[in-house]
Design a protein that fits this description.
Low-confidence stretches: none
InterPro entries: DUF7962 (IPR058268), Glutathione-S-Trfase_C_sf (IPR036282), Glutathione_S-Trfase_N (IPR004045), Thioredoxin-like_sf (IPR036249)
Largest sheet: 9 strands, mixed
Distance between the termini: 45 Å
Mean pLDDT: 96
Order of helices and strands: EHEHEEHHHHHHHHHHEEEEE
Number of helices: 12
Shape: globular
Strand order of the largest sheet: 2-1-3-4-8-7-6-5-9
Pfam family, one: GST_N_3
Protein name: GST N-terminal domain-containing protein
Organism: Mycena alexandri
Domain GST N-terminal: 1-81
Length: 331
């Protein structure tokens, strides 16, 4: 079963999934895409107009959003088959707090913590094409306002780091006191590790203020670097080759996800409906349209057709909305 990651190096969320794949020890290949649109290897060849990166294909199934990518990797490559885990057991006995870790990663790390970090980027040095591209995600970008907000962003990042410091105060090795690093560790680490080299953030990484947190950050960085040394280099493939293989691959049977009729009724959706699915936060104007084939409390699945053929595209239920597409009248 082939695993293909669509990513680009400067994408912090791509790095997050790189690390999930490292912990899981799942062999995969990668397609390097542009940091700005267009991305014809995704939109044209696969028919997926969701514009955020990364995307991950497992066979013919394409997963969107890092929360669902992480969940799908853990489910489809279980530890019982020799793969690693992003939900290790607690160090002193007991299973991992899987649901709590997922909620922590999505609702705090991804949606509260990470949005503070981009303000620290050198927006005043970016070319107009980049500013224009990012404006399509969340509305017109005011560079002067972003620059003016950096002090507040840095202050809030310190406030959140103090929570990490409090969590680590008892001397635990990992955030949820697990035997190995979990998705929780990966989801906080990628934010602070990303901004650490930025100019003007030195005061945030003060070892006298956050000794436990900085030790944890360095510990996980070293842990991941060691894993990477033992990893076979990830092969690169072209978008054309990737699309051909994805379209030709088998897909997970629909009954694995199923169709929860109760949830469908709550949403006013039926199997077979033509729907458009888009994020609730940024990128609302980049919905992906297809036939709804599966629905449960965690994800939507739609059939989408690009120039290479049919794929199954998966979206999370949390912070994504599916809207029925009005059928075109026949004249």
């Amino acid at each position: 079963m082939s695993v293909i990651l669509y990513r680009y190096d400067a994408s912090p969320f791509s790095v997050k999934i790189d690390h999930v794949l490292l912990l899981k020890n799942v062999p995969h290949e990668k397609v390097n895409v542009a940091s700005i649109l267009p991305r014809p290897e995704i939109t044209d060849l696969l028919g997926v107009t969701y514009r955020k990166i990364p995307l991950l294909a497992i066979g013919n199934d394409i997963y969107c959003d890092t929360s669902l990518i992480a969940s799908a990797l853990d489910r489809r490559f279980p530890t019982a088959q020799g793969y690693g885990t992003i939900f290790p057991n607690r160090k002193h006995g007991g299973d991992a707090d899987t649901g709590l870790i997922k909620a922590f990663a999505k609702h705090w790390a991804d949606n509260i913590l990470f949005p503070l970090a981009p303000a620290l980027l050198p927006w005043e040095k970016f070319p107009p094409a980049f500013i224009k591209d990012r404006s399509t995600l969340s509305g017109p970008i005011n560079v002067e306002a972003i620059v003016a907000s950096r002090g507040r962003a840095l202050s809030l990042l310190a406030t959140h780091l103090s929570l990490v410091e409090e969590q680590l105060a008892d001397g635990r090795e990992w955030l949820f006191d697990t035997e190995l690093p979990s998705l929780a560790d990966i989801s906080v680490h990628f934010v602070y590790a990303w901004i650490k080299p930025f100019r003007g953030v030195e005061s945030l990484f003060d070892p006298k203020t956050f000794p436990k947190s900085l030790e944890w950050l360095a510990r996980l960085t070293t842990y991941l670097a060691r894993l990477k040394l033992n990893q076979t280099p990830v092969p690169k493939i072209t978008g054309k080759d990737a699309a051909a293989r994805i379209v030709a691959a088998s897909f997970e049977p629909y009954n694995v996800i199923g169709f929860d009729s109760r949830e469908g009724a709550r949403l006013g959706l039926n199997a077979g409906d033509e729907v458009s699915i888009a994020p609730d936060d940024t990128g609302k104007n980049f919905g992906t349209t297809g036939k709804l084939v599966s629905l449960n409390r965690e994800e939507f699945v739609i059939e989408v057709k690009g120039s290479e053929g049919l794929v199954r595209c998966h979206f999370p239920r949390v912070m994504f909305t599916a809207r029925r597409v009005a059928s075109k009248s026949k004249l």
